Structures are given as structure tokens and as C-alpha cells.
Amino acid sequence: QAVEKNSTTIAISGGTGITYLSSGNVTYAANTAGAVVLKVCVAGTSTCTNKSSVTLVWNEANQDYEYTYSWSPSGAGSWDLFAIFTPADAGAWSTPSESAASTTVSVAKSAQTVTTDISSATITHTVTGAYYDMDVYVTTTAHQGNVSYQIVSGPCTFSNSTNIKSTGAGDCSIKVIGAATANYLEGYVLFTLHVLQGVQTVAVTSPTGTQKLSATSASNVFDLAGIGSTNGNGDISYSVTGTGCSIDADGHTLKFTQVGTCSVTVTAAETTDFASDTETYTFSVTIGDGTVSITRTTANQTYSTTLSSNKYALSNLGATKTGDGTIEYSISNAGTT
């Protein structure tokens, strides 16, 4: 009479909480002694690998035969684990099928470490913007993922996907990103681009100007507004040196009181983005046009035989003047003095 074999039970457990490049424990438990092979398959496929055969050991506490296998997955994703069990006494114990002890585990992606050969760089801002190409100047190491860049903060923008353009002075924080792969999560490292204060240039519409002095003081002014400009973003202001020269309270009207030279300094103020700059404008005040007027243009007097009576007071002409000159008289006709 044939003796029926004992029914073998085999179970597999564990394998949870594993990430790529780490290992996790997979435990086999059977009700009889024997050897087991761990079969690892890409979930739902026939792409499988058999691990080395191991022998189960009696566990007194659990009253079964066990072995804990340290498994290091070859990649992230879902894996089907099977236990191929061979009883030590195959004549007395049945051999279970592969599917009798199986489990599906999920292996998480590993964190990705992104590194750069330098952590910062320095450029100087310009009126049109300074450029820094991350792909050209920075060597990035990532786990096979494509590298991209993201501006986190600061006065910067992209001129293309890798070339950074400054929009002002200050520190730009740039995220250097390693793209996620089959086995790695997206990772990044921060890179700092220091943008130094740039230079602005003051220009004047003409290096010199001139105006005649007027006897009317209200006319002895010249509007400097628009004389100076800057290619940066500094406010334009005017100051002056020279005797009799001053800038009115409005900040741009030049006032003068005498003939001479007014040396005007045109200044573009310092800003966060640009250093201050100056240019000189020379304004010449020339001699004005004085005028003399008289209330009488003709007069007559009878000649007297008394010589002392042959006089005429020129003050009777009512002469007046503009300017600060002195009125003098001269005679051009013969016989008069």
C-alpha cells in the first residue's frame, strides 16, 4: 500500500521598505527541513533570476524551519518573489509549486545625489546684462539623469535653458537638477551666482554751452534738464563750481551773475545695480550787450560873444543805460570841447 506524503507548507514574508541600493530581509518558513531558492522576477513578467540555494534552520520559538535572506534588488519597481522549496526528505514530504509561496514587493527609488565641481561663481552686471552658461562653466555629476536648471531667487533670468542672464546686481540662487531616472528620484544642489554692481556711463548732449550776460538778472539762467543722461538707472543731478554760478532749488536751473565759466558736474547716482558716474559740462558766460538811450537827440543854442555862456549841460540829454558801465560823453564836431 502506497504511503501518502506529508503536505509541505512554505511561506515567504518581508521585503518591504526596501529602496534601490539598499537591502531588505526576506524570510522563508516551512514545516519541514529542506533547501530553498529565492526566485526574483520583474513583476508580471517571466524575466527572472534564481538566487543561491540555502538550507532552512529549525526555529525553536516558532516551531518551524526558517531562513532569512538579505536581498538587494537590482532596480526600483515591483518585483515578484517566489520560494522554490525542496524538502530534505522528498520521500516523506511533498514538493510545493513555485506559486505556493510568493509575494510582490515594491522597491522605492533611491535619493539622487547631485554635485557640482564649484558651488558658486561671480560675474559683473552690465547695462545689457551679464551672462553665465551653466553647461559651459559648471561640471555636474548626476545619476544618468538629464541636468536642468531653475532660478530660485535673485536678479537673474534665462536667455536659454542653460545660459543665465543678470537683470541686476545681487545673489542668484540656482537649483541644479538631476532628473529622475528608473532607479533614482529627482535630486538637486544649489548653486550661487554672485552678480556684482556694474558700471553706468553719463553722457552730455554737448560738452560746452554759452550765453551772454544780461542786464536783466531774471534772464541770467540756463535750464540744464536734459543735458545729461545715463545708460544705467541712476538719477541725474547737477552741481556747479565757478564764481557767480549756482544751481537753483529745482536742481536743474543754472543761475549766473557775471562773465566767466561755470563748470557743471553731471552725476548719475549710485544704485543697487550700478556705481555712480560723472561727466563735466562747461558753460561760458560772455559779455552782454549794454544799451544807452537819451531822451533828447537834438538841441540848439545861440552863440554868445560871452564865451563863458557858450555851455550846454549834457545831462539835459537824459542819458540812461543798461548794464553796469559808466556813462561817458565825447564830442566829434570841430569847435566844441
What does this structure look like?
With about 325 residues, the chain is an all-beta fold. Helices cover about 0% and strands about 45% of the residues. It contains one helix and 30 strands. It has one helix at about 135; strands at about 10-15, 25-30, 35-40, 50-55, 55-60, 65-70, 75-85, 100-105, 115, 120-125, 130-135, 140, 145-155, 155-160, 165, 170-180, 185-195, 200, 200-205, 210, 220-225, 230, 235-240, 245, 255, 260-270, 275, 275-285, 290-295, 320. The strands form ten sheets. Strands 1-2-6-5 form a four-stranded antiparallel beta sheet, with no helix packed on it. Strand 14 and strand 15 (about 165) form a beta hairpin. The termini are far apart. The model has no long low-confidence stretch (mean pLDDT about 90).
Q: Topology of this protein?
A:
Elements: E1 10-14, E2 24-30, E3 34-42, E4 48-55, E5 57-59, E6 64-71, E7 77-87, E8 102-107, E9 115-116, E10 120-124, E11 131-133, H1 134-137, E12 140-141, E13 147-153, E14 156-158, E15 163-166, E16 170-178, E17 187-196, E18 198-199, E19 202-204, E20 208-212, E21 221-223, E22 228-230, E23 236-241, E24 245-247, E25 253-256, E26 260-268, E27 274-275, E28 277-286, E29 292-293, E30 320-321
Parallel strand pairs: 10-17, 18-27, 20-28
Antiparallel strand pairs: 1-2, 2-6, 3-4, 3-7, 5-6, 7-8, 9-12, 11-15, 13-16, 14-15, 16-17, 19-22, 21-25, 23-26, 24-25, 26-28, 29-30
